[in-house]
Amino acid sequence: MALLETINYKVKTVNEGTDTSAERSVSLKLNIIKNNSKYLIHRAVVNQDNQSRQGTSSTKTRSEVRAGGKKPWKQKGTGQARSGSKNSPLWNGGGVAFGPKPRSYRKKINSKEWKLALQTALFNSSTKITVIANFIEGIDTPNTKKVLQRLENVIDLNSRTLLILKEPNVNVTLSLRNVTKLDILYSNTLNVKDILLAKNIIIVEDALENIQKTYHD
Fold it and tell me: Which Pfam family would be a valid example here (predicted)?
């Protein structure tokens, strides 16, 4: 059964020339599940991994391999093991027994279940979430040094970090595309796996509001 939980965060201002110690609070309401939460989150992660698989692997069976249909040698009298076709999986160049064929690896998960898993993952990661404000202000051109400085004002970027923006921003994306251990997601395209893998999660304030509207029913 889903439970309603409210998490309060202190918003940190990261713009240059502002007092980073001046903080205010914002809240995030989440529907979470405590019993069997690992099972639900596992289903969501497996579903995400399966959706990323192309499923295009294909091998030829003995009926599809192009080879002679003639019996290689007579049944008896040669001293060789009996053989009826060069298409046999036992032969080099023959067909493949039980090989892969194109297929879909998708597994069904209900929309409500997925949202519940995502919100539960966010709740379980609440201690590693930092909410920031004024992050994009003044970034009119790509500038890696400037953007990194704003992030390093509030968190150590030596461990895997997830930055969540409200919407795509070309200047931020170009500034951070070569930064190792830093991933960027948007508030309407979150996924469970990246949230679980991140050691630190930075959420821009307006993205937090959009997360509330998008995933909290």
Answer: Ribosomal_L4
